[in-house]
Amino acid sequence: MTTQPSPAATAAPVSPIALADRLPLRERKKLRTRQALIDTALELFTERGFDGTTLDDLCEAVEVSKRTFFRNFGSKEDVATAPLHDLWTAFLDDLESRDPGGRPVLEMLQDALLATLDRMTAEGWARRVRLSHRLAEKTPSMDAHGLHFCDRTSRAALAILHRRLILADPHDLRPRLALDMLVAAFHRALETWTSRPGPGTRAELAAHVRDAFTAIPGTLTLTAGLRDET
User: Fold this and answer.
1) pTM of the prediction?
2) CA of 118: how far to CAs of 16, 59, 87, 93, 112, in Å?
3) CB-facing half-sphere around the CA of 222: CA atoms within 13 A
């Protein structure tokens, strides 16, 4: 499968959600095309399987050219994981202006992610996330793509923290570990939310994320005895 660089890979990440309200008509049309590609891709991949759906199939269903597809996405994996990518790109946008207010960095990161979740108000976003996550669970190439995006996003977030906050030691492991805990807690919440019956709402996902954040301090001090197997 031919893969071309995603626009996000060559420019500073800007959330399509954040841009939508301030773009001229022509650009809003482009965003609608992008959304149609995401929605159609997730439906086709769910119905036919990720490997059973070609890029030609997708472009034909949306009635766009491959050139238009590659203006928006770098690969099939890119379009299939877009709902969560949009969340984390918007999270980076939030970090660019968030004031830590003297609180622990981890708390600031948690507040930023929850605030970003609150802004994911586009119709059908939660459903797209569930479809995308369920596809990734059974599609190795999507899972690998997601891991790569996750690492790239964590590095970008760390760069924002070092640029905006006064951190005494540039080699201090704690900011990156705080990001790692944030991401791990979110993914555990996402797994729980996706596995539950019913359509699943954004508010329910946010509740699971809050529960995961609440569990972090106890995780750091968790002790357990050896189970008696006799």
Assistant:
1) 0.86
2) 15, 32, 10, 14, 10
3) 6
